[in-house]
Amino acid sequence: MKITPISNGTAIDHIPGGMALKVCRILDIPETGSHSSISIAMYVSSKKMGFKDLVKIEDRELKRKEVDKIALIAPNATIIIIKDTEVTKKMQVSLPKKVMEIVKCSNPNCITNKKEPIVSEFSVENGSEIRLKCIYCERYVEDIMESIVW
Amino acid sequence: MSFKGKDVVSIRDFSRKEIEHILSVAETMVPAAKGQETNELMKGKILATLFYEPSTRTNLSFKAAMLRLGGSTLGFTDAKGTSATKGETLADTIRMAEAYSDIVVLRHPQEGSARLAAQFSKQPVINAGDGAGQHPTQTLLDLFTIKDELGSIEGKNIALVGDLRYGRTAHSLAHALAMFDTNLTFVSPKTLKMPGEVIKHLEDEGAEPVISDDLESVIPDSDIIYVTRIQKERFPDPAEYIKVAGSYRLDLDMIKDAKQTMRIMHPLPRVNEIPPEVDATVHSAYFRQAFNGVPVRMALLALVSGVV
Ligand SMILES: [Zn+2]
Prior knowledge:
Chain A is mostly beta strands. Helix content of chain A is 14%, strand content 35%. The N and C termini of chain B lie close together (10 Å).
């Protein structure tokens, strides 16, 4: 597999096969007006995962909230930070116990979807699949990807 | 066990031990709830009852509970004419209400509103129903009724009947009954079955609910038949509604093989689920159940104020 190396930026490895474009959507890339190079590899064979996706973005650092969003759809992803062509940091995303603000409750009648001075909050249940339970209306988010706030 | 300052938002916030404590305090409130004793535990205290949608039964029952404890109430019974119609947030209304009272009772059409209120109020908040969400005082009075009618809850055969899909109070009650190690049977038309997610949760808690759509076959073994309303709106075809409503009607013929000790409960108001001829039988417990809202709410008011 050949992907142009980047000298400065972030690589996100071990994304579940087929999810790379969703990760890009979460990170809002490509960014309008930016010409940073972006490499996306999909369905790369992987010993650990069978197939994995990989995203490399030049000149971009991830914010905490962005990493949390990625963890919701790619809980085993690795974030690699590259500076001057060297890997300076490698870390696994971790699923937080609760997520605030970054997801919108999928229940339209939930009080968090009305004009109130609060932010959404969900407890994270990590069983065979990740589930988010709204602490207000006590319902589960139906489609996490579709409920992530951009 | 202290409940002082505690909010009552969802039955899931309470352990079995805590629920048992509430029920035993409620038991001591019965004479005062009936007016046979006077009680001044809440003298000088004010209860704010904020009802953003009408619910006569729940509203009157909370007011009666506070008055029976020697306290006073203020509030509204409908959102009409309140600042909510002028666009005030619930958070702001709650901050006003908590300044005028010692406990806030909230009924609101949006799910999660009681949790929000509890976050903004320094005074305890009691959820009197948040949309299709939680209604914990209903669950507690249901449990109190079962205990009162049968002597205990554990090990009893309890059938929940009717709309188990949309009726969220049935979900909360099922959860609480699972905590008490009861034998649950869910009886509903196929289109109104208990959601798989609720059943899975119950099984995780160790319950083994039985699913049925044949009410008659369930009656002989049951200790409690808990009937909920099947709403016409749930059926696109009116003919289908009439058929279903007919086969879930608990009339004298339907209950002829019931145990003498079997009790019928219903959160009321009923429509056609239980005909009036059943009222005079030994089985009807629904009017006592409605009364039980008073001692149970008295217990909660007294507990969260820390006076018992
Ligand atoms: Zn919600």
